[in-house]
Amino acid sequence: EVQLVESGGGLVQPGGSLRLSCAASGFTFSTYEMNWVRQAPGKRLEWVSYMSSSGSNKHYADSVKGRFTISRDNAKNSLYLQMNSLRVEDTAVYYCARGGAVAASNWFDPWGQGTLVTVSS
Amino acid sequence: DIQMTQSPSSVSASVGDRVTITCRASQGISTWLAWYQQKPGKAPNLLIYAASSLQSGVPSRFSGSGSGTDFTLTISSLQPEDFATYYCRQAYTFPLDFGGGTKVEIK
């Protein structure tokens, strides 16, 4: 069974840092693109970041560029999101979502269950 | 950036009704569009990709159409388990933005 499990969320003060992890199983992780998506309470889904299967290509939403860093460890079947200089508006449930195994198939399926990040003083 | 606009933002419908949700892109995206269903407290679930391709395991009452800037998601006969929020998302270029969502509620 294909599965994604996020961890690392929690309560952090504004200006603080947090590192999210996404553990993948049930598929050949190293061949798939991966993404982070977030959803603030009661708000729409917001794509956050993308990484290619090899890790050589990355993209970020403008709202997190320069503060968040996506990475992956294909040997550990894991995706990461390092979040620095956190703001109150970064409060959200963060999901990892699988992209495609071939170019131009980044459809986000499946998704993990999400991990809640709360930025508050 | 490509803006994705969904309408309506909410719809009240009864079991058995036909429901249509529209999604408009601010510029042409060919058929690079996906539709997702999200139930409260749960992660989204992919329904339709490439504008009209039904994801494996998704009931055939769901269908998608459109290309360029205008797209639709249709539920042919609404079932109790279909009451949820639906999102479109463009996959044409970064940033991979979502629409604002359409909440399908019980009438």
Number of strands of chain A: 10
Number of strands of chain B: 10
The Rg value of chain A, from CA coordinates, equals 14 Å
Helix content of chain A: under 10%
Topology as H/E string of chain A?
EEEEEEEEEE
Distance between the termini of chain A: 40 Å
Query: What is the count of DSSP helices of chain A, taking H or I runs of 4+ residues?
Result: 0
Average pLDDT of chain A works out at: 96
The average pLDDT of chain B is 97
Q: Globular, elongated, flat, extended or rod-shaped: what is the shape of chain A? A: globular
Structural class of chain B: mainly beta
Major sheet details of chain A: 6 strands, mixed
Report on this model:
The complex is a heterodimer of chains A (121) and B (107). Chain A has 121 residues and is mostly beta strands. Chain A has strands at 3-7, 10-12, 18-25, 34-39, 45-51, 58-60, 68-73, 78-83, 92-98, 115-119. In chain A, strands 2-10-9-4-5-6 form a six-stranded mixed β-sheet, with no helix packed on it. Chain A has a four-stranded antiparallel β-sheet with strand order 1-3-8-7, with no helix packed on it. The N and C termini of chain A lie far apart (40 Å). The mean pLDDT of chain A is 96. The mean pLDDT of chain B is 97. The interface between A and B is medium-sized, with 20 and 21 residues.
Question: Strands, helices and their partners?
Answer:
The complex is a heterodimer of chains A (121) and B (107).
Chain A: E1 3-7, E2 10-12, E3 18-25, E4 34-39, E5 45-51, E6 58-60, E7 68-73, E8 78-83, E9 92-98, E10 115-119
Parallel strand pairs in A: 2-10
Antiparallel strand pairs in A: 1-3, 3-8, 4-5, 4-9, 5-6, 7-8, 9-10
Chain B: E1 4-7, E2 10-13, E3 19-25, E4 33-38, E5 45-49, E6 53-54, E7 62-67, E8 70-75, E9 85-90, E10 102-106
Parallel strand pairs in B: 2-10
Antiparallel strand pairs in B: 1-3, 3-8, 4-5, 4-9, 5-6, 7-8, 9-10
